[in-house]
Write a structure and sequence with these properties.
The complex is a heterodimer of chains A (259) and B (95). Chain A has 11 helices and no strands. Chain A is mainly α. Chain B has a domain of 59 residues: Roll (Ubiquitin-like (UB roll)), CATH 3.10.20. Chain B is flat. Classes of the chains: A mainly alpha (259), B alpha+beta (95). At the A-B interface, α2 and α6 of A face β2 and α1 of B.
């Protein structure tokens, strides 16, 4: 179905959108990988690192498709390692520091519920490659959601400290949620072409599912009065630059390095 | 958090349909549900299995080294309990 993108402009849009999905996955995967050897105990350390690898795999699939779309002008590694901060277009929530374990799980739940809804629809995309990637990713995400739900219930309904930390975790990042349900021109056009998902429509169901889990976890749904947005336009928090300096170090220091 | 407050579980994996579950190791978890998830993450990431069992280590009753004398030694001098003790008639050939 690559060919509904007959005119060049549409193809550029598709490339941009594919990169956004790749960036979402790469940046979150990197954040999760920071738990490797820092996990609360060995089993959880391994479990979180597995999830990080799921996201890195998802990033690779998107970047390799983006490389095809660029007609070989750029490679997978160029997209992952050799772009500037402003070129990344991931959601801001994905780049936030991992915080404590409770905050990591709060973000994970927010995203896992979002991705189960979004990927379900993406797997019906008119772009066959994006649909196939989504079809693969949704299986992983269902498992991620099972884990994050489990942890949110455990921590929320656990000790006073775990409850407070989890509540603080949700409060700290809640203002980054609205961005996930907004769409710019690029995505609106792709929605019309049947390629992208209209995430605005996902919000009621997302709120319903998150609300039910938080209620059971005895966590209050934050009433945030602040919102931060800009990821899709390349405007980032101060955290992304630091993340990239670590992520890109090898390619920047040893250009063309392969392994 | 440390593993001190967690329970120990033994993990069994069935690698293929038709085979038995085999013991592969152990892990720490809060409860059965979590143990099953960690078993998936720690022991099956490279397609090792099609089915998992987890059992609380404390629920396993094991024979003791000291009992070996009364448990196993009596078998040693009773070779007629083994099929190999008996000479097969030629007609049966390889069994």
């Amino acid at each position: 179905m690559k060919l509904i993108m007959s005119d060049l402009r549409d193809k550029d849009l598709l490339l941009q959108f594919t990169l956004r999905l790749g960036d979402d996955a790469l940046i979150l995967g990197h954040r999760l990988s920071e738990w490797c050897r820092n996990g609360p105990f060995l089993e959880e350390d391994i479990a979180l690192s597995n999830i990080a690898l799921d996201y890195i795999g998802r990033a690779r699939m998107h970047y390799s498709y983006a490389s095809d779309l660029s007609e070989g002008e750029k490679s997978e590694d160029d997209f992952a390692f050799l772009r500037e901060c402003r070129d990344y277009q991931n959601f801001l929530i994905n780049e936030l520091p991992r915080g404590d374990f409770a905050q990591t799980m709060a973000r994970q739940l927010i995203l896992d519920v979002f991705y189960t809804l979004q990927l379900e629809q993406m797997s019906q995309s008119k772009d066959a490659t994006l649909a196939a990637i989504a079809g693969k990713a949704i299986k992983e995400t269902k498992y991620h959601l099972r884990r994050s739900t489990d942890w949110v219930l455990r921590l929320g309904d656990g000790t006073e400290e775990s409850h407070n930390r989890l509540q603080a975790g949700f409060d700290a990042i809640w203002g980054y949620v609205p961005e996930m349900f907004e769409q710019d021109e690029v995505e609106e056009k792709l929605v019309k072409l049947g390629v992208a998902v209209n995430t605005k429509d996902l919000k009621p169901e997302w709120e319903k599912q998150i609300g039910a889990i938080l209620k059971e976890a005895t966590i209050d749904v934050p009433q945030q009065e602040w919102t931060v947005r800009g990821g899709r336009a390349g405007f980032h928090t101060e955290h992304l630059g630091h993340l990239l300096s670590e992520l890109q170090y090898m390619q920047r220091s040893y250009p063309g390095l392969e392994w | 958090m440390s593993t001190e407050k967690l329970e120990l579980f033994e993990v069994f994996i069935r690698s293929k349909r038709g085979l038995d579950h085999r013991h592969v190791g152990s892990l720490h978890a809060e409860d059965h549900q979590q143990a099953l998830e960690y078993a998936r993450d720690c022991y099956t990431r490279r397609s090792e299995g099609v089915s998992l069992w987890v059992v609380k280590s404390a629920d396993i009753v094991a024979s003791q080294e000291d009992d070996a004398e009364s448990f196993y030694d009596p078998m040693d001098d009773k070779p007629y309990r083994h099929a190999t003790y008996y000479q097969l008639p030629k007609e049966v050939d390889n069994m």
